[in-house]
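Chapter review: from sequence to fold.
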Amino acid sequence: MESSIIYVLSISGQPLMPTTRHNKVWYWLRRGLARVVRREPFTIQLCFETSIHTQPVSVGVDTGSKTVGVAATTNGEVVYQAEVHLRTDISEKMTQRRIYRRNRRARKTRYRAARFANRRRQAGWLAPSLRSKAEATVKAVRLVASLLPVGKVNVEVGSFDTQKLQNPEITNLQYQQGELQGYLLREYVLEKWQRTCAYCGVRGVPLELEHIVPKSRWGSNRVSNLTLACRPCNERKGQKTAAEFGFPQIQAQARVPLKDAAHVSAIKTSVLQQLRSFFGATQVSVTYGYETKYKRIQVLGLPKSHTNDAVAIACEIGERVTPREEVYQIRCLPRGQYQRFNGHHSEHKCWAPRKVRGFKLSEVVKAKGMVGYIRGRREKGAFLIKEVSSGKKLIQVVPSKLERVARPTQGWMIMRKPT
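The token string follows.
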């Protein structure tokens, strides 16, 4: 089992080379020659002057829509690995906020003139959900720069041909024509599904356009997500997807959503601009997916993962390194809950204390041999614990059975896990 790395800062806060000499570090801490700056990743700051001899560290960034891989290498050794899990709830929260705002203004300020049509977007504007992902990606790289003397940043960017992702055989003029060439939408759907209910097969009755993945489940209005259904089938299906309703063959006809590819393509320019303004234009370089795949498979022989891709991005062509046996799982957290009242008529005041039974939201805890974070708290009853990396529900347990592992800092929940 390899030794975990301890990151070291000089007395002025400048990053030095990390160390695995735990005995030396504990001696410094006991003697007061160093102090703990951060517990995860474990970082100390020296309290005495020392010579500064550092070697350049190369950082690889595997951008993504939901998860970002970050790795740092130097002298043929991996000194940092992390998976950053981005927030995916921004759009939903802003939709809820918009509903509250419009309802409140309709009740209290009905005389206010509409202002939605007189606001211009600045150059480089990103939607809030995309801006959150771009800023979190840059923040993850800056975290590495606060721990290690970073000399170079390699960022993998992707440009996706969304039409070719859906139809690999598309060529030339077909890019301009599109799927609905020569059809109206309803006419096309009727022709595609042969004027038959997709679920019960009935014909000769009024048919309705129906979403294979409901809009309430973030389904789109694309023609590939539309089918025909009679009124009874449509009502019975409700909020279910076609697969949940018992028709996986219909679900298979809905094309793969392009949201993730669109997000990665949209944020790449902003990420590169922010990194170049922080590190300098000459220190940030761009790489592409085919280079990463070649280095990961042909040179390093590693399986597919976000951290392994980041390691391959950080390496030069022909350089061989071995990934570490541990990886930092980092989850981006919201700032907090600002809702003051709830209930059907906003008649209840939200209690939401800072601590419940001594525990806060998003604290990493251990219970019954499982490690997760607190997602839900109750004044009386059990707490809801979820897994850090996937967000899946693990267990519900009373607070007296919980053991605190770590608390979130700087808007992040960080936990070290074996690969």
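Two observations follow directly from the output. The longest helix spans residues 259-279. The radius of gyration is 26 Å.
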